[in-house]
Design brief:
Blueprint lengths: L4 H28 L10 H55 L6 H22 L2 E2 L2 E2 L11 E2 L5 E2 L7 E5 L2 E4 L4 H20 L3 H54 L3 H34 L1
Antiparallel strand pairs: 1-2, 3-4, 5-6
């Protein structure tokens, strides 16, 4: 086959363009830090990268759900502990006021403090997390308890859950009456006994206070168990995130140092092809003029 000048020019131009394209692709990799700038470069690898990104987004959402759940439960734990301290103080007052030597006036003074402790319990039962009432069931926008003797629960009995992995949901709320109902009732009854100067009645409330405190402790233990479970799952999610990022990096991210060295080599080849092409074309033009 006869090789014409046109064929030589076309071949030279294609080689120069190919060298330039390779250099440009490497430059894009250096600029973006990514191995591929379009799916057509390696459809299989790009599809794998997209899948890993989707998995990372899914795991990140679960991790955020876990963080939110832990924050909610930590707030609940604080409220229950504070309520428990109020009950402990009420028990101390009940023991002191059960002494037959106390006068009616003295018991009335103790009743005033019990009323304050009841208000403190109501405050704890109306605590919020990120603006949501944590003991109101799903009625998170409305205070679950209105002050009263005893305070009346106005929430519902629905659970609130967070999904912390595929198909794994954990309840994060404690229903108000399950933690505070007995405590509020016994403090109301204790206050009434104190104002009635009923020492025997006051003594009967001590065991009831213990029972109400046990109920608070049980709720607090439930919160602790849920928190531990979610924290373990969150740690696993964080480990999965690291693993997914490493896998994606292997396909997606370019070794910048290696790319720079490759770019310099490609630049030399490109410049050499330009020089060789220029000389070849000059010689061909002289041949034509002859």
């Amino acid at each position: 086959m006869r090789v014409t000048h046109s064929m030589i020019f076309d071949s030279t131009l294609r080689n120069i363009q190919a060298n330039y394209a390779a250099m440009q692709r490497t430059n894009d990799q250096i600029s973006t830090g990514r191995r591929y700038t379009s799916a057509s470069e390696n459809p299989t690898a790009v599809a794998r990268i997209m899948h890993l990104r989707s998995e990372e987004a899914r795991v990140e959402q679960y991790r955020r759900n876990a963080d939110d759940a832990i924050g909610w439960l930590n707030t609940t734990d604080t409220a229950l502990q504070t309520a428990g301290e109020a009950l402990q103080r009420a028990r101390e007052l009940a023991v002191a006021a059960s002494n037959d030597s106390l006068s009616a006036e003295e018991r009335a003074m103790v009743a005033d403090e019990i009323d304050q402790l009841l208000m403190q319990l109501t405050d704890m039962a109306n605590w919020t997390h990120n603006g949501e009432y944590i003991f109101a069931g799903r009625q998170v926008s409305t205070p679950p308890y209105q002050p009263g003797t005893p305070p009346v629960y106005q929430g519902d009995f629905e659970s609130i859950e967070r999904e912390i992995n595929t198909g794994v949901r954990v309840q994060i709320n404690i229903i108000g009456p399950d933690a505070f109902g007995d405590a509020m009732q016994v403090l109301t009854d204790l206050s009434n006994d104190l104002r009635a100067n009923d020492a025997a009645g006051v003594r009967s409330r001590i065991n009831q206070i213990d029972g109400a405190h046990d109920k608070l402790l049980a709720a607090n233990a439930t919160v602790g168990a849920r928190t531990n479970r979610i924290e373990i799952q969150r740690d696993r999610l964080e480990a999965i995130q690291v693993n997914l990022a490493e896998l994606r990096s292997q396909d997606e991210e370019v070794d910048v140092v290696e790319a720079i060295v490759r770019f310099q080599s490609q630049e030399l080849v490109y410049n050499a092809s330009l020089q060789a092409g220029a000389r070849l074309m000059q010689q061909s033009l002289l041949d034509f003029l002859r």
